[in-house]
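BUG: 3D viewer hangs when loading the predicted structure for this chain

Environment: internal workstation, default settings.
Expected: structure renders.
Actual: progress bar stalls at 90%.

Input used:
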Amino acid sequence: MYIEVIKAIILGIVEGITEWLPISSTGHMILVEEFIKFDASEVFMEMFRVVIQLGAIMAVVLLYFHKLNPLAPSKTLKQKKDTMDIWFKVIIGVLPAAVLGILFDDWFDENFYNYQTVAVTLIIYGILFIIIENKNKRKPAKIRSFKELSYKTALAIGFFQVLSLVPGTSRSGATILGAIILGTSRNIAAEYSFFLSIPVMFGASVLKLAKFGIEFTNLELTVLLTGMIVAFIVSLIAIRFLIRYIKNNDFKAFGWYRIILGILVLVYFMFT
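Structure tokens produced before the viewer hung:
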């Protein structure tokens, strides 16, 4: 049992780091699970990979609780309306991925959850990050606050998030890339990506739990809770790091990282 808990800690660390950085948590999970084999059924592991994200999402809820709380007593009426405006834009942005995710979740898992797809998408989006950042190097952002983010732009970013249904794309990577293309600042792109993740990941977790059921063995429950708690703690660190990092840096470093990781994934699985 102890060795399984250690494995859950490792995967929790991987999830907590890679969920928020635009480098694909799925890509890393596939690679790490190649070396860390759980003594659990594939059905449980499919559920675990998704539900562990609940721990990560709670980090966003904690860090941005005041900003996202429309009922905060310290907020003025205008501030409460502005907070609700953020939530309405989050709902608009979530709709495309929510609809297509519900309809095609199993199909995407069956047809694209493999190392070839992950490696290719890691490389493609890595290249895109570098190209877009170079193109926007001297181009000032048009949208620097959530007030300036229109509902039309929010919906458009939501369609970019649909791309993350393909494993290896990275949910944060797709939304951040789309938001930057549409003229948002890196800070707004990252924060909007965080906020979109709340309903998306809660919804995905509920769907997986509904399919798996809520009856767990003691080992399964221990592994799941351990992974979620570790993902929560590590996510707090990763989110704070990303927000500090993008104040003075662009996303090109993540682009190069994705390219290198994609090549390593291809080489490793081709020769094993």
